[in-house]
Amino acid sequence: MRIKTVFSRFLVAIVMSFMGQTAFAANNASTQSRTLIIYFSQPEGMKPDAVDGFSGASVLQKNTPETGSTQYVAQLLQKQTQGDLYRIETTTPYPRQHEALLRAAEKEQQTKARPSLNTPLPDLSHYDTIYVGYPIWWYTMPMVIYGLFEQNDFANKTIIPFTTHGGSRLADSLREIARRQPKAKLITRALSLSRDDISHPDVPAQVEQWVKNVQPQR
Length: 218
Ligand SMILES: Cc1cc2nc3c(=O)[nH]c(=O)nc-3n(C[C@H](O)[C@H](O)[C@H](O)COP(=O)(O)O)c2cc1C
Fold this sequence. Notes:
Blueprint: H1 2-31, E1 35-39, H2 69-81, E2 84-87, H3 98-110, E3 129-135, H4 143-151, E4 158-165, H5 173-180, E5 185-186, E6 191-194, H6 203-214
Parallel strand pairs: 1-2, 1-3, 3-4, 4-5, 4-6
Helix pairs in contact: 2-6
Bound molecules: flavin mononucleotide.
Protein name: Flavodoxin
Keywords: Flavoprotein, FMN, Signal
Domain Flavodoxin-like: 67-191
């Protein structure tokens, strides 16, 4: 009788410990984000205190002069995917005045500059899906985005680009990314939104629908 009781207690303990482990694994998997959103955005006339950090940024409901167009799309993506958000900031800040910014970007392109980052990129090994957003500058990606794809390894990761622009849409960016990251899975159904449409009330739904079409299912 006593042996039976000890044995059944032993069985209960094993079952409970197994259930505990399963619950931990499920909980761990659900809290572990595998999606990263990297973006570069240079709103003109931006106030310094409008700059958000890596993750945890408040999600703005609409575009304001302090929020860049690409930044706004990145925030919508973060809200929908629950991914981590990383904003690219360069060690040398860009001018906020339009003409000066145009000239600075032009010079970077002419000199094939690769601006350095203010804060290190998150460890890409923690992610398998990486959205990368940027404005089109002078008919291509900003030079800092060239640096991103040249200096980091995206092999076996899904890269999902998105751009905002004044008419050039994706420009040559998909080809330039593919050239630099041949081992990545590049989603070519990239999103490109005109800066003129960015404040339209349909944009959040449009972004949501696009994510449903491109986000890999796990
Ligand atoms: C330096 C510079 C160069 C630009 N060059 C182009 C271009 O070649 N083609 C285009 O469609 N838009 C161009 N634009 C417009 C931006 O792509 C557009 O305003 C974008 O939405 C800005 O995004 P942001 O607010 O996130 O920085 C340029 C803007 C700047 C500041």
